[in-house]
Amino acid sequence: MSPTGGVILVTMRENDDQSGFSPVTRRSVSDQVFSELRDAVLTGRFAPGDSLPPERELAASFAVNRHAVREALQRLQTAGFVRVVHGGGTTVLDVRSTAGLDLLGHLARSGEGLDPMILRDGLEMRRCIGVEAARVAATRASCEARNRVVAAAAAYDLDDHPDADRAFWLEVVEASGNLTFRLALNSLVQAIDSGSDVMDALLAADRADLLPHAPLASAIAAGDAELAARLADAILSQAVDVWASLTDSGRTLDPVTRGA
C-alpha cells in the first residue's frame, strides 16, 4: 500500500538516530507511533514543557513516513498530551491540566500498566457517580426508567447475563438523566475494559451481587433518594475496600491483581 495509506509494511533497518524509538514493523502505523509517544509522556520520559523531536527525526526513528508521525501528533494534541505549533515544534503538556476523562483509558493501556493510585481514584469516582446518579434517579426518573432499573437488578440472578453489573449501573445513570454522569461512566468503563485482570478482582463482589442491588432498585422505584444514595454508597464502597486490602498504602498491588 502507498506510504499515505492506513496500513503499510516497513522494512526494518538500523536505527542510528538519537531519539531512541523502535522502528514500527507493521499495520496501523500512526496508531503505533501514537501509542509509543503517549507512553513516553505518561512514563515521564518527556516531561511537561519538553519538546518532542521534530517530525523528521521521529519518522526516521520509527522508520515510518512523516504523514504517520503527523497524524499521531494530531491525535496526541486532541487528547491533551501535546501542543503542536505549525513551524514551531511540539511541546509536551501537563496532562493533569489538559486531558479529559479519556486519560483513564490511556493510563490503563500504557506500557506501565495501571498505577495503584489511579485505580483508587477511578473507584472513588465510580462511587461518587453511582451514589449521585442513584439519588437523582430516585427524584426524577420516569416510570419507564424506574422499571428498567428494577429489571436490571433482577438480572443479577440470571446465569446468562455476565454483564449484569455494568447493565445495572448504566440503567441507573440513564435514569438520572444526567449526560455528564453518562460520559464519565463511559470513560470509566473503557478503563475497566483495558485493565480487566485487575478489575475482575476489584469488582468481584459487585458482580456477584454480594450486597444485593434489588433493594437499591426498589428505593429508586419508590422515589426514596436518601435511601437510594446510602445503598449505592454501600455497594460501590466494596471495590474501594478491596483495593485497600490489596495495597500497601497505595504503593503496590498484591500480585493477584497484576494479571501476572
From TrEMBL:
Pfam families: FCD, GntR. Residues 27-95 form the HTH gntR-type domain. InterPro entries: GntR_C (IPR011711), TF_FadR/GntR_C (IPR008920), Tscrpt_reg_HTH_GntR (IPR000524), WH-like_DNA-bd_sf (IPR036388), WH_DNA-bd_sf (IPR036390). The keyword Transcription applies. Keywords: DNA-binding, Transcription, Transcription regulation. PANTHER family: TRANSCRIPTIONAL REGULATOR, GNTR FAMILY, UXU OPERON TRANSCRIPTIONAL REGULATOR. This is HTH gntR-type domain-containing protein. It comes from Terrabacter tumescens. The lineage of its organism: Bacteria, Bacillati, Actinomycetota, Actinomycetes, Micrococcales.
